[in-house]
């Protein structure tokens, strides 16, 4: 699936519905490119965790403070000279714009999968606060980031290594890298699909 890289990307958000592989992909990608992982789940206030554990979807108001917290973490990471990779469902355009306001040009890697696979993965995942009953509301809320700047969509059912490989190529081809660290270098070619 195509990626759009019209802005510089100082860091990344790995986004998508519950069970799409955000935590798995972001951890592996952070290791691969030497970035700092900011695990979004670790920044929910206890009230949000309690709601989700009880099978109640978060509201815009529940998510607002969490998104701001993630934006602050990403900014602090950049200020410290590190590259942030944030896991955050970022389901709506407005949520992504809130993160973009905190970190202009931040990129979004969207892991796309259908709801039956998401439901299956969430049901099989041990000891996690998200119950399978919340999968439907995640899909109802999702606004895919198609056409937005600095976004890349990948098939979340590819093997983890293939996702990380494609994401790494996209990251390496980002404009500031091409301009700054590799003057005159052509951006790396993205693999088909
Ligand atoms: N590419 C993949 N292929 C198969 N299973 C995956 C893949 N990525 C993640 N998983 C599995 O799916 C489940 C959900 O992954 P996770 O990273 O926790 O998703 P999220 O953080 O988006 O909720 C986990 O059991 C994980 O091992
Ligand atoms: O790992 C997961 O299962 C979730 O996707 C998690 O990363 C996220 O915190 C929730 O989805 C709650 O936030 P939203 O209701 O905004 O998705």
UniProtKB/TrEMBL annotation:
<dbReference type="InterPro" id="IPR006001">
    <property type="entry name" value="Therm_gnt_kin"/>
</dbReference>
<comment type="pathway">
    <text>Carbohydrate acid metabolism.</text>
</comment>
<keyword id="KW-0067">ATP-binding</keyword>
<keyword id="KW-0418">Kinase</keyword>
<keyword id="KW-0808">Transferase</keyword>
<dbReference type="Pfam" id="PF13671">
    <property type="entry name" value="AAA_33"/>
</dbReference>
<comment type="similarity">
    <text>Belongs to the gluconokinase GntK/GntV family.</text>
</comment>
<dbReference type="InterPro" id="IPR027417">
    <property type="entry name" value="P-loop_NTPase"/>
</dbReference>
<protein>
    <recommendedName>
        <fullName>Gluconokinase</fullName>
        <ecNumber>2.7.1.12</ecNumber>
    </recommendedName>
</protein>
<keyword id="KW-0547">Nucleotide-binding</keyword>
């Amino acid at each position: 699936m195509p990626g759009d890289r019209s802005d510089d990307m100082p860091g990344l958000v790995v986004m998508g519905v519950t069970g799409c592989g955000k935590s798995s992909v972001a951890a592996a990608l952070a290791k691969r490119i030497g970035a700092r992982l900011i695990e979004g789940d670790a920044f929910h206030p206890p009230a949000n965790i309690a709601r989700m554990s009880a099978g109640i979807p978060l509201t815009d108001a529940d998510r607002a403070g969490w998104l701001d917290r993630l934006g602050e973490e990403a900014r602090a990471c950049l200020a410290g000279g590190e590259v942030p990779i944030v896991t955050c469902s970022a389901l709506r355009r407005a949520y992504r714009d809130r993160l973009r306001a905190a970190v202009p040009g931040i990129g979004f890697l969207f892991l796309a999968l259908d709801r039956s696979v998401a439901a299956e993965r969430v049901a099989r995942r041990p000891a996690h606060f998200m119950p399978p009953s919340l999968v439907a509301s995640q899909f109802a809320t999702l606004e895919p980031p198609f056409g937005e700047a600095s976004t890349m969509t990948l098939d979340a059912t590819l093997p983890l290594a293939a996702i990380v490989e494609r994401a790494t190529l996209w990251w390496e081809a980002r404009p500031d890298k091409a301009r700054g660290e590799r003057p005159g270098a052509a951006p790396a070619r993205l693999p088909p699909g």
